[in-house]
Amino acid sequence: MFSNKQIFVYDIKDFNFIVKSCEENESSFDNILRQTWKQAEQNKIFRYILNIKDSKILKGKYKFLAQLNPDRTQYRRAPESITSMVQSFNSTRFNFTKLTQQEILFDIGNGDTNDIIAINSSPLEQSHCLFLAERLKCLPQIMTEYSLCKVIELCLLSNSWSLRAFFNGLCALSSVNHLHWHLYYLKYEMLLEYIDICNYVSGVHLLIEYPAKGFCLKLSDFKNIEDFVSRAFVVVNYLQLRQMAHNVYITRAKSKSNDELYNDVRIYIWVRKPFTGVKNITAILPGVCELFGHLTISDETVYNNLTQDDIINLLYDITEECFLLIKDELKNILEK
């Protein structure tokens, strides 16, 4: 029964607003996440044991990270066919009410199994798991302000600079049409932790010195978490109402590359060309991790021959047109 699962309860005093890159003193949230994930791995609950065969930073100023993980393509669950930004939840397809008890790591909050952390059965990286917000409501993969707020709080519960969160929307490489966020530890310094961003409108910046142009919000610009979340959700929800495909990535941030302290949190939001149908999992598909600069490659020949220019062209192609289309329109909305 689920009553045997741990229940993680927290409040604001448990948040870590500043973390150090040089030390990994686990918070209680890090501890329960890593331990339950490792136990699930030992119990062979995953579709494969995580085995990243090689990792490299591609030469060039963008510091793209490429990782060779052929098992993910070979063993992962077949992705759902996504055909619309307003596709309804389908109870007959795989969804997160069908998880086995072994796949559920722990409960967030009150033990009602509504907000939970579960394994991602085909992991990209260490402790790759899913945050399932209001799971029992059977919501489609359309972001809610509640889920965004909760996932920001989970990030702040960590004492690690490397815990990241991300969201693939409908027609933006999401594989399951049931509301979920991804969490994982990515222990590589990434350019988007500190890249320069440009002023746009109050509380929202533009990411333009990068092949995947998009929008960025920083926690340090706001008085509290609620205002940060509310402003970010205005951007995301406008894209949802306009039925424009989008991806969202949340990361710890710092002022410059050699800073020891991560003293900020950034939310990146990309509007992008829609992808419909069943995705070809053997190709390099630009989901949110790829937009952030983290590339999972299944084919060794592709991995060996990959260059920064290849990725620049890929990211530019799926974001440039949509970004230019929405930039002025969104500004009018945000200024109201």
UniProtKB/TrEMBL annotation:
Pfam families per UniProt: GDPGP1_C (PF26216), GDPGP1_N (PF26217)
GO molecular function: GDP-D-glucose phosphorylase activity; guanyl-nucleotide exchange factor activity; hydrolase activity; nucleotide binding
InterPro entries on file: GDPGP, GDPGP1_C, GDPGP1_N
One GO location term (cellular component): cytoplasm
Spans through the membrane: none
Keyword Membrane carried by entry: no
Compartment list: Cytoplasm
Keywords: Cytoplasm, Guanine-nucleotide releasing factor, Hydrolase, Nucleotide-binding, Nucleotidyltransferase, Transferase
All copies of domain GDPGP1-like C-terminal, residue ranges: 204-335
Function, in words: Specific and highly efficient GDP-D-glucose phosphorylase regulating the levels of GDP-D-glucose in cells.
Xref: PANTHER family: GDP-D-GLUCOSE PHOSPHORYLASE 1
Family: Belongs to the GDPGP1 family.
Protein name according to UniProt: GDP-D-glucose phosphorylase 1
Organism encoding this protein: Atta cephalotes (Leafcutter ant)
